[in-house]
Amino acid sequence: MAPEVTDVTDATFAAEVLGGDVPVLVEFWATWCPPCRMIAPVLAELARERAGTLAVRKINSDENPEATRAYQVMSLPTMILFSGGEPVLTVVGAQPKARLEERLDRALDAQGAVARANVSATSRP
């Protein structure tokens, strides 16, 4: 079965997003939000194309106010990229796939550079 975008809730957010082994892109959305429907196919493609290196989740902001407030989501859709349990990128509004991928890659590359620098610093005599 192909990887897909799966739902998370306030109750499952910590385990499924913050405790993930791979970076997790979370879309905060609502049923009444047309741009949220526009971005859905893009997120589904990313979930399939980046399976194993990026997990894609969505959370209904109306039904899950705790996570929405915790990450100060004010507009929908808002996508937040989490790496190592921390938010490293926030994208507000529907984006073309190429633009979203560019921003994701830049953020993930920066995270990799930080991790490599931390390993280098701790491995010095």
Descriptive account of the structure:
The chain has four helices and five strands; from the N terminus they run E-H-E-H-E-H-E-E-H. The longest helix is centred in the last third of the chain and has 27 residues, at 97-123. The model is unreliable at 116-124 (pLDDT under 50). It has helices at residues 13-18, 34-49, 65-70, 97-123; strands at 6-7, 24-29, 55-60, 78-83, 86-92. The protein is globular. It has a single domain, classed as Glutaredoxin (3-Layer(aba) Sandwich), CATH 3.40.30.10. It is α/β, with parallel strands linked by helices and 125 residues long. A five-stranded mixed beta sheet has the order 1-3-2-4-5, with helices on one face.
Number of helices: 4
Overall CATH architecture: 3-Layer(aba) Sandwich
> Average pLDDT, to the nearest integer?
90
Fraction of residues in helix: 40-55%
CATH C-level name: Alpha Beta
Beta strands, count: 5
What is the topological layout?
Blueprint: E1 6-7, H1 13-18, E2 24-29, H2 34-49, E3 55-60, H3 65-70, E4 78-83, E5 86-92, H4 97-123
Parallel strand pairs: 1-3, 2-3
Antiparallel strand pairs: 2-4, 4-5
Please sum up the structure shown.
This protein has helices at residues 13-18, 34-49, 65-70, 97-123, and strands spanning 6-7, 24-29, 55-60, 78-83, 86-92.
